[in-house]
Amino acid sequence: MEANNDYDFSLSMASLLRVGTSQAHEAAEHSQGGVRLVKGELDKEEYVYFLMMMWHVYTELERGLEKHASYPTLQPTYNPALLSRTPSLSQDISYLLGVPEAAWQTHPSHSSLMTSPPKCFTEYTTRLRELSESADPTCLLAHAYVRYLGDMSGGQFIGRRIAKAYDLDMDQGDGEWYRDGMNAGIGDDTTLKAAVLEEANMAFKMNASIFDLLSGDRQVQEPQQPAVPAKQAKGLYDPILGGLLPVALTVGLALVVYIGTGGASGGRIFRGAESWLRN
Known about the structure:
By secondary structure, this protein is mainly alpha-helical. The chain is 57% helix and 2% strand.
């Protein structure tokens, strides 16, 4: 792939991604679904539907990163102990549906998603599988950047808005090591820089399309009576409740900020949504 002369490819990979995806940031900030999320207008069924799609996205991404953990362009940023989101998402979904974690994939809500998956969701997961199976998986770095960096940076614009809307305590993480890892992995190779930048913009658009599904027009199937009573299900996850639902989801940045999921800050309280959770 030839480098696009519109960009300064002497920049580091991290700086180039920041500059080269700025238009995607600007455009996606106005997504209807993102606005509803920021305002705290999603109901629980919509939220679960979204988390299920994200679970599949992260499953494909993290499977590919694990497969290519030693690949030169990916190895410097590979840190599943810190970054992995698939297990926490599964816990979130299980808690919200009030079913054991082993059972949510057979829940009617998930069955409905997989029977009639949205086109943008299918395209997203298919693209991640394609990259995972390719001889050069470097462009997985673009999707990892889009999905992970907000976990450490705090989600910038929408992360702050989400924290305010849902009364969250939110620390600003440090993603400098990740940026350094991207720069080290790609180095000065302008061809790789161009490929990763193009893929990152594609990833932003795919994420924006997922957020467009949160417009409020979709009819979500009501969950059946949970196999585990709600109070019992809550008890299963009380120690990590803070990591279950404080999910600050960026739209324009397409950076998902799972506040406390799977980490030491998992005890923080999602105060503004307690009544919502119990409905």
